[in-house]
Amino acid sequence: MLARVRDTVLYFDIDGMGLVPEGGKMVERPPLVLLHGGPGGDHSSFKSSHAALRDVAQVIYVDHRGCGRSAEGDPATYTLDNNIDDLDALRAHLGLERLCVLGSSYGGMVAQGYALRYPERVSNLILVCTAPSFRFLADAQRYIAERGTHDQQRVCQWLWDASFTSMDQLREYYEVTAPLYATTFKPEDFDAGWNRGRRSFIALNRGFGDFLRTFDYTEQLSQIRCPTLVIAGAHDWICPPRHSRIIAEAIPRAHLKLFANSSHSISADENAAYLQAVRGFLTYAPA
Questions:
Q1: 250 within 8 A of 221, measured Cβ to Cβ
Q2: How far is Cα 127 from Cα 22, in angstroms, rounded to an integer?
Q3: What distance in Å separates the CA atoms of residue 220 and residue 91, rounded to the nearest whole number?
Q4: Apex 272 CA angle, 224 and 61, nearest 5
Q5: Are 6 and 73 in contact (CB under 8 A)?
Q6: What is the rounded average pLDDT for all residues in the chain?
Q7: What's the CA gap between 5 and 92, in Å, rounded?
Q8: Do the strands 8-15 and 2-5 form a parallel or antiparallel pair, or are they unpaired?
């Protein structure tokens, strides 16, 4: 489905009922928006890893502007600020008063910004393998310099320089670094995941060449008052767990859950335990 909002067109999809018959009454399930990473990723991986959450929420998938199945546009508009405001425009388009927001990786950066800019619109917040500021970049660069293979160092330089020039180059980056993203990575599974997704090296360059080098929510996080679950992978290389600890310590009453056997892709590495944590939070945290 497409939503014409602000100056763009966003792709979204909805899985699950908002009102569920239970005996002699209708029970409301909260709308849960899933925000993908990148920048330049899409919602497709969520559909294979998060669909089971439909038993506790009405799951809303969305592609950021210029990403996935959303409309392309002027790359100058592919910004963190626009992603935040686009989300609120989509909320209004769907006629929803409040959202549960789950942001993974870059999506978690959008989610933090949304909770700060539109606090009255967020009922619950889930931040997965993300960071509160540009400082994650130095840690990721240090990790690759010290522990990456020669090929991983080579392709990560394209990321640090924001210099991707083709989809073939972007595919090479993800294929070479895939073992870093998931401790359970199997080379034979790469093609299927890649072929399902629609990625944008233009949006990725825009983020890593510009706003991801400067954004910083650290001093504002104490303003977030909604129930918050922060999830981190112990072996995450690009958003190391210390950044999740910073978030959890800054947000009042936030709960930190560390997955000991996961890297950046916890939903792949420890899916059952991950979904249990998210489902429990959505079920018991006050909305």
A1: yes
A2: 31
A3: 23
A4: 55
A5: no
A6: 97
A7: 9
A8: antiparallel
251 in Cβ contact with 111 (< 8 Å): no
Please give the Cα distance from 97 to 217 (Å, whole number). Answer: 25
Whole-number pLDDT of residue 287: 62
Joined together, the tokens standing for residue 253 give: 């009453």
Domain range list for the chain:
2-284
Alpha-carbon separation of residue 158 from 54, 136, 153, 200, 208 (angstroms) = 38, 17, 9, 14, 10
178 token code pair: 């895939």
| CA distances in angstroms from 174 to 34, 41, 144, 171, 245, listed in the order given | 21, 11, 14, 5, 27
CATH code: domain 2-284 is 3.40.50.1820
Nearest to 30 by CA among 127, 102, 85: 102
Using one digit for the tens of pLDDT, what is the confidence trace for 172-210? 999 999 999 999 999 999 999 999 999 999 999 999 999
Which amino acid makes up residue 189? Answer: D
Nearest of 4, 8, 12 to residue 69 by alpha carbon: 12
